[in-house]
Specification:
Layout: H1 3-6, E1 18-22, H2 38-43, H3 45-51, E2 55-58, E3 62-63, E4 75-79, H4 86-98, E5 102-107, H5 117-125, E6 137-138, E7 161-165, E8 171-176, H6 191-206, E9 211-214, H7 253-265, E10 272-275, H8 282-286, E11 296-297, H9 300-303, H10 309-324, E12 331-333, H11 342-346, H12 367-383, E13 387-391, H13 412-416, H14 461-465, H15 471-484, H16 486-489, E14 494-495, E15 502-507, E16 510-515, E17 521-522, E18 528-532, E19 540-541, E20 545-550
Parallel strand pairs: 1-2, 1-13, 2-5, 5-9, 9-10, 10-11, 12-13
Antiparallel strand pairs: 3-4, 6-8, 7-8, 14-15, 15-16, 16-20, 17-19, 18-20
Length: 552
């Protein structure tokens, strides 16, 4: 048994783990239909092993009509036939464990698909039926009930309410959907909802899954009065100044996660959770990570920090202060399936903090600048104490595909915004594995479900693996050193004053230096360069470059 396999026995592995996010539909196509699947994922497990990650997080692979890329779940206890079978899923979990890689699944507790058996039964049962109590059905406002019950807006645009039609053809009640109409919200005041999700957790934990990422962890509990409110003009999870949010980050969510933690802790070894919680401050985030609740949560404040020494350090310090108060590790993340890839964010001066393409696309893009900064940001993230999430393709240096033809867009944001916001498809384009032209080894058969840019021929995994200076080589070396160098494996760090435009910190004999200024800076005299994101000449670190050095 290898050292990596022995590491699986560490119950605190999650505090310092490197975790790779797999958007299954876009990772690798094993059956030639143009859509990534479990077969393709299994075939590429050696790639993930060689990359050096500790775990993978899979976006939803459940049975789904795919109205929102799998986040509209019709059956939580099976795998969608387009992606594979439950038996293939079992085999994948076993094979991943055999490579020393843990498996984290996505769970979607805020809503289900409108094809879910519960919702279909609720529609058939009619107003006042017990089946409707599992969701949030309400009568409309106005003399004929033809206005929504309140003024809430859906995350993908448009009203958050859709009116039903009664069995006799007359207009019926309205139901709440904070996302697409195909995603009705569950009523977490109902005990059957709690019991159902406890059962779902156990189902997958019994199959060997090591943990769950919780989608919309902040949004399960709603103010029972469902009041009107004025939301933030840009951020759905925030209220306008002076207003109280009626469905984001309400205190009632914490009892749900205390219950889930008891389920996870009943297993040996204990299973873990990571929260997707969009909340106003790191202090509010820390409430999800108290000792009896969730283990980790994505650090979106860091993801949206501007590319300045002051902005980055402020985000890092605030994260450590808030999460340290509850003894939780910080989770560092630069990209995911919901935000513009960070090469394209960092390539726009002063725009890195925006996560949506609609807020970025009019700003000029410098891909060379974005790539240089992305390399430096990778070394910064991987040097910080805590755990880190990597989004598939960032290790190849992929940029956001911003010119997808309108006819191929599948993100519901496109239609719900009346075709003004292209949504998130640009960060979900299938990976380039090999070759000089699309589909770049993604699959052998149909064209990929989203077209790949020809420019990705320079960024295929095959080409990158043969280039010692590629982004892939940088990530492999960083992940190797992160696990091998004692100073990078702990949870302590100390800031070092190295100038206004420089971030520098020590970790038990290793110093990370990031130059965010416009001029080269000196590295510590006599230090040994372990790894750098760009060429270091004469002990001088170029602009937008990071280095790890061993102090003497």
């Amino acid at each position: 048994m290898t050292e990596r396999l022995l590491h699986r026995d560490d119950p605190l592995w999650w505090r310092t783990a490197s975790i790779y996010q797999v958007y299954v539909r876009s990772f690798a196509d094993g059956d030639g239909d143009g859509v990534g699947d479990v077969a393709g994922l299994r075939a590429r497990l050696p790639y993930l092993r060689d990359l050096g990650v500790d775990a993978v997080w899979l976006n939803p692979w459940y049975v789904s009509p795919m109205a929102d890329g799998g986040y509209d779940v019709a059956d939580f206890r099976d795998i969608d036939p387009v992606l594979g079978t439950l038996e293939e899923g079992r085999a994948f979990i076993e094979e991943a464990h055999g490579h020393g890689i843990r498996v984290i699944l996505d769970i979607v507790p805020n809503h289900v698909s409108d094809r879910h058996a519960w919702f279909r039964q609720a529609l058939a049962a009619g107003p006042g039926a017990p089946e409707r109590e599992l969701f949030l059905f309400r009568d409309g406002r106005g003399p004929d009930g033809d206005e929504p019950p309140n003024n809430w807006r859906a995350n993908f645009g448009g009203p958050a309410w859709t009116r039903t039609t009664n069995p006799d053809g007359t207009p019926g009640q309205w139901y709440l959907h904070l996302f697409a109409p195909e995603q009705p919200d569950l009523n977490w005041e109902h005990p059957d909802v709690h019991e159902e999700f406890r059962s779902i957790l156990r189902f997958w934990f019994d199959l060997g899954v090591d943990g769950f990422r919780i989608d919309v962890a902040h949004g399960l509990v709603k103010d029972p009065l469902l009041p009107d409110f004025q939301q933030h003009p840009r951020e759905q999870h925030l209220p306008a100044p002076g207003h109280v949010h009626p469905y984001a980050d309400l205190d009632g969510v914490h009892e749900i996660y205390r219950d889930w933690r008891r389920v996870a802790d009943s297993y040996d070894p204990p299973r873990i959770f990571v929260a997707e919680a969009w909340v106003p401050t790191p202090e509010r985030l820390s409430r999800y990570l108290r000792a009896d609740e969730l283990h980790t949560a994505f650090n979106f404040h860091y993801l949206q920090a501007p590319w300045t020494a002051e902005g980055m350090r402020a985000s890092i310090d605030a994260s450590f202060a808030a999460l340290g108060s509850v003894g939780a590790p910080v989770t560092w993340v630069l990209s995911n399936h919901d935000v513009v890839r960070h090469v394209s964010r960092f390539g726009r001066p002063d725009h890195a903090q925006h996560k949506a393409l609609s807020a970025l696309r009019d700003a000029p893009l410098d891909l060379e600048l974005g790539t240089r900064r992305a390399r430096a940001a990778a070394l910064l993230s991987l040097a910080l104490p805590g755990n880190v999430y990597l989004y598939q393709g960032e290790e190849l240096g992929l940029w956001e595909v911003e010119d997808l033809p309108p006819e191929v867009l599948q993100d519901p944001t496109w239609e719900r915004s009346e075709r003004t916001d292209p949504g998130r498809d640009g960060c979900r384009v299938p990976l380039p594995w090999s070759g000089q032209a699309p589909p770049f080894g993604f699959g052998d058969g149909a064209e990929p479900w989203l077209p790949q840019p020809a420019g990705w021929a320079e960024l295929t995994a095959e080409r990158a693996a043969a280039d010692p200076d590629s982004m892939l080589s940088l990530y492999r070396n960083a992940l190797r050193l992160r696990s091998e160098v004692p100073g990078l494996a702990g949870e302590a760090m100390t800031w070092v004053d190295a100038g206004e435009q420089v971030l520098a910190f020590d970790r038990e004999g290793v110093r990370c230096v990031v130059n965010l200024g416009t001029e080269p800076v000196d590295l510590p005299e006599g230090a040994e360069v372990l790894l750098a994101s760009d060429v270091v000449v004469g002990g001088r670190l170029p602009r937008d470059t990071a280095a790890w050095v061993r102090l003497r």
